[in-house]
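look at this record:
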Amino acid sequence: MKTFLAKKETVQPKWYLIDAEGQVLGRLAVKVANIIRGRNKPIYTPNVDTGDYVVIVNAEKIVLTGRKEEQKTYMSFSGFVGGHRTRTVPQLRAKRPEFLIEHAVKGMLPKNRLADKMLTKLRIFAGPAHDHVAQNPEKISL
């Protein structure tokens, strides 16, 4: 029996819908990263993007455990002198709640060019409405 290796042309991605309300950030991010990579499929091949599309709604209602809500910070640097900027979870939740999930999932993907393509399969919306009704995403609960 020969080992099966997936090819880019043979992969047929599906669409999934996940409601993030009440979900723990890290646990949700692990499961989403595995779906985007295709780790949940029997045809998974590390060097081929075999993953599916994921639409996440209610990103503003994600939960962090422990004292991360007050203590966790996100740092960014513009590249200029004095361009160091630190934001807390409440600041990000008020301005861009999608960033929390996107940042967590991006950290769980491989650090290569394939990860950039995989991250485009992740669609995050702050509220319950989304733009991908035409794709008929399959609702899954994690």
Notes: The helical segments are 25-37, 68-71, 89-95, 98-107, 113-119. Residues 111 and 118 are 11 Å apart (CA to CA). DSSP finds five helices and six strands in the chain. The chain has a mean pLDDT of 95.
